[in-house]
UniProtKB/TrEMBL annotation:
Official protein name in the record: Uncharacterized protein
Keyword Signal: yes
Keywords: Disulfide bond, Glycoprotein, Signal
Lineage: superkingdom: Eukaryota
Domain Bulb-type lectin: 24-143
Length: 519
């Protein structure tokens, strides 16, 4: 062996040894990572290398937690092309990253950009990035490729779920097939940008759960709140991208994660440093009303009621016999057709998951009153609502098709029904007969009045807890409760008060076109 060959061999051996023994976070052109070697992010949060999941003997290139929960995998490169031995090698070249086995290249970043001085770096966020060393990594546009654009079953703070409108890249998450098999599972989740953007979870190619459009605070179909202030949610909606992401609050991005399980549930987990375990603080489990389109067109699903489905006011089951047999898929139809020569009014529903917006029209610049006029001027308009509920509401969504996949919040609906009954002195019809038979009516009425005081629209009008205790324990005079908060739906009517129906409190305001027959 000549001197030159010996030097090259020593350099290659030294490079491999350094990668295996020193916590470096980057590799460059002509460097490689073999099975058994790793690179670690600068702060020690994450590690990249080869692993075998569960009881499997297959080998995969992946990223996992290093500092906490050592070995918990968050991303897999070759999830659908496993390696059957320990021959895997990662290489860096002018096209990015390639993963080699004895059979050749089985996975790559497949970038179209030629890199003069390519660098692959693992960040403390868990993101694996490729960029040209001649450019500044601090500028996000200089990143040629990043693992965060291709989520697996884990959603980390900083990741995006959505569409890059410039490149056309659609980022969505997908479940593993099982805990032993990281290949693409049956469940996935992502944004549908047809009409007004909304979030779906899919089972195969079928729409399984619709979380609705973003209303400025959350997806309108989401019943969860942000517990314990773990993170904030951000929805980006501009001419370059439409995406959703999380930002941690007073925590590192390396101790929070969302995981889509092989059975389709999403678990929100936070690392417990004291007990050194992942704690589930929210599980998005699927209930009856979450199933897409359970009640069909113009049907509302009530989470805590039986039967689950009910037709909107002015509608009746399309197939009555099937409806009675708890097959609601046929939905509802109008009792009376729309008459565009009649004057129009609006029936308000509040606290709702808005209907499927896949064929809707929207304008973020107009207000609700303008939105109403637009809907009134188009006989094909079936409903309207604010696009953003913050600061009194803004933006406009118009529906021109059947209204499907609506879910009500029965607690809010009960508030509005109670208000209507109270004002019309119909409390006896509102109270369950069993309660009336076993209770003092005056006391029951007083409790209802106290409850209404607690749900008034303006929080400053609501009593303090100490005042509620005093009200319950004394005969002090109670103020007349003001109107609680609620939302709107369109009806066509001839301004006859006999046609009015009670308003239901459901969440996001929706206005729906319908005809209410005389009673």
């Amino acid at each position: 062996m000549d001197v030159t060959s010996l030097i090259l061999l020593l350099c290659s051996t030294l490079s491999s040894t350094l990668i295996n023994s020193i916590a470096i976070d980057s590799i460059r052109a002509n460097q490689s990572i073999r099975d058994g070697e790793t690179i670690t992010s600068a702060g020690g949060e994450f590690q990249l290398g080869f692993f075998s999941p569960g009881r499997s003997t297959n080998r995969y290139l992946g990223i996992w937690f290093k500092k906490i929960s050592n070995g918990t995998v968050v991303w897999v490169a070759n999830r659908d092309t496993p390696i059957s031995n320990f021959a895997g090698v990662v290489r860096v070249n002018q096209k990015g990253i390639t993963l080699h086995t004895d059979d050749g290249i089985i996975w790559s970043t497949n970038t179209s950009v030629f890199l003069k001085n390519p660098v692959v770096k693992l960040l403390d966020s868990g993101n694996l990035v490729v960029w040209d060393e001649d450019h500044n990594l601090e500028k996000a546009e200089k990143i040629i490729w990043q693992s965060f654009d291709y989520p697996g079953d884990t959603f980390l703070p900083g990741m995006k779920i959505g569409i890059d409108l410039v490149t056309g890249l659609n980022s969505y998450y997908t479940s593993w097939k099982s805990v032993d098999d990281p290949s693409t599972g049956i469940f996935s989740g992502g944004l549908d940008i047809n009409g007004f953007p909304q979030f779906f979870r899919y089972k195969g190619s079928v729409k399984w759960v619709r979380f609705g459009p973003w209303n400025g605070r959350q997806f309108s179909g989401s019943t969860k709140t942000n517990p314990n202030g773990m993170y904030t949610e951000e929805f980006v909606f501009n001419d370059k991208e439409i995406c959703f992401r999380l930002h941690p609050i007073n925590r590192t991005s390396a101790d929070i994660k969302l995981t889509l399980t092989p059975n389709g549930d999403v678990k929100h987990l936070v690392w417990n440093y004291q007990n050194k375990v992942w704690m589930v603080f929210v599980t998005d489990m699927i209930s009856d009303c979450d199933v897409y389109g359970l009640c069909g067109a113009y049907g509302i699903c009530h989470i805590n009621s039986s039967p689950r489905c009910e037709c909107l006011s002015g509608f009746v089951p399309k197939f009555p016999d099937k409806w009675k047999a708890v097959d609601w898929s046929g939905g509802c139809v109008r009792e009376m057709g729309l008459n565009c020569t009649m004057e129009a009014g609006f029936l308000k529903y509040s606290g709702m998951k808005l209907p499927d917006t896949g064929q809707s029209w929207y304008d973020m610049k107009i207000n609700l009153e303008e939105c109403k006029r637009w809907c009134l001027n188009n006989c094909n308009c079936t409903a309207y609502a604010n696009a953003d509920i913050r600061n009194g509401g803004s933006g406009c969504i118009l529906w021109f098709n059947d209204l499907t996949d609506m879910v009500s919040n029965t607690a809010d609906g009960q508030d509005i029904y109670a208000w209507k009954s109270y004002n019309e002195d119909r409390l006896l019809g509102f109270i369950d007969e069993v309660i009336l038979e076993s209770s003092n009516q005056i006391e029951v009425f007083r409790f209802i009045q106290i409850g209404l005081l607690c749900v008034q629209e303006d929080p400053t009008d609501r009593p303090l807890m100490s005042q509620v205790v005093s009200m319950l324990s004394s005969n002090m005079k109670l103020h007349h409760p003001k109107k609680p908060g609620f939302f709107m739906d369109r009806i066509l009517q001839d301004r006859d008060p006999l046609l009015e129906k009670p308003e239901f409190s459901l969440g996001n305001d929706l206005t729906m076109s319908c005809v209410i027959p005389r009673q």
